[in-house]
Amino acid sequence: MQAIENIQLAEIADTLVSLCTAFIMGSIIGIERQYRQRTAGLRTNVLVCVGAAIFVDMAFRVAGSDGASRVIAYVVSGVGFLGAGVIMREEGSVRGLNTAATLWGSAAIGACAGADLIVEAILATLFVLSANTLLRPMVNYVNRLPLDTEASEITQLIHVIAADEQRQEAMSALQSAVEQGNYPLAEIEVSPFGPDEVQIEATLMATAVNSKEMDKLVQRLSKNAAIRHVYWQATTAE
């Protein structure tokens, strides 16, 4: 009988408005993501938005505003796990952060709709959509600018190629040069490089660096008889 008593037309109409708002706002964001061929497209953003709205609206009906506040906190953490699933690490770079952030925004929009904050949900949709569209030309412009290694916080990689039998001598020379330059060393990896050579890759801590100093360090290492080839590169990947 409780199920029958819970059928209140006014409350059902309120829920319908919340879910419709979440569906429409999630679709607007999802269409843009689908057009860009992102991992989380139309259906994912709609489901996240509508799901958040359902949880918040249900909490309001069952436990009032206090219960809704607690559910919203759980929605935020739950969507965090979902967003982590679309973040991928490929060849030293991280992809999917923007998609994960968009899912987080979709959940926030759904929570607004579930809390009957319809105007707020619409405004949030406009801002999320603007971040993914209007800011794109600015991001593309900045990405095309030359990398300023002295002003940017970047990660430096030093690559040393040496004969397999001279691995230890080359590694010692590399570590000594890094210590003399007071560069914080994060890790060193050794991997095969051809039939009789190895590649020693030293990763320095992310910091602002003077490229001229790195060039001098490479020049000193190139004079070591155990090292056949050495070069350094800067990367923004963390």
From TrEMBL:
InterPro entries membership: MgtC-like_C (IPR048640), MgtC/SapB/SrpB/YhiD_fam (IPR003416), MgtC_SapB_SrpB_YhiD_N (IPR049177)
Regions annotated as coiled coil: none
Keyword Transmembrane: yes
Transmembrane segments annotated in the record for this chain: 12-31, 43-64, 71-88, 108-129
Pfam families reported for this sequence: MgtC (PF02308), MgtC_SapB_C (PF21770)
All residue ranges annotated as the MgtC-like C-terminal domain in the record: 158-232
Highest taxon of source: Bacteria
Membrane topology: Multi-pass membrane protein
Record has Cell membrane as a keyword: yes
UniProt keyword list: Cell inner membrane, Cell membrane, Membrane, Transmembrane, Transmembrane helix
Gene3D superfamilies in UniProt: 3.30.70.260
Record's subcellular location: Cell inner membrane; Cell membrane
MgtC/SapB/SrpB/YhiD N-terminal domain residues: 19-139
Similarity-based family: Belongs to the MgtC/SapB family.
Function: Virulence factor required for growth in low Mg(2+) medium and for intramacrophage survival. May be involved in regulating membrane potential by activating Na(+)/K(+)-ATPase.
UniProt-recorded name of the protein: Protein MgtC
Organism in which the protein naturally occurs: Alcaligenes endophyticus
